[in-house]
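#help-structures
NK: newbie question, is this the right format to request a structure? protein is WGR domain-containing protein
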Amino acid sequence: MSTVQLRRIDPSRNMARFYMLTVQPSLFGEWCLVREWGRIGSPGRVASTPFPSPALAEAALDKCQRQKVRKGYAQPI
C-alpha cells in the first residue's frame, strides 16, 4: 500500500492546495487508486479508480504523481 502527499502553495495567487494519492485494496478483491484533493484546511474531494492488480494501480499512481509535479505540486518537507 503506497501513499503520496503533494502540496502546491503560492501566496501571491492565494493558492494552498493538497493532493493525496493512495493505493489500497477494495472490498471486492480489486486494488484502487484513491485520489483526494482540495484546499488545505478544508475537506477534500475523493475519487477512487479500481484496478485488477496492485502493479497497475501503482503505475497509475506514478503517472498521476508525475503529472501533478509538472503542474507545480511538491512533497511537503
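mod (FA): yep, format's fine, and the C-alpha cells are attached above. Residues 54-70 form the longest helix (17 residues).
NK: thank you!
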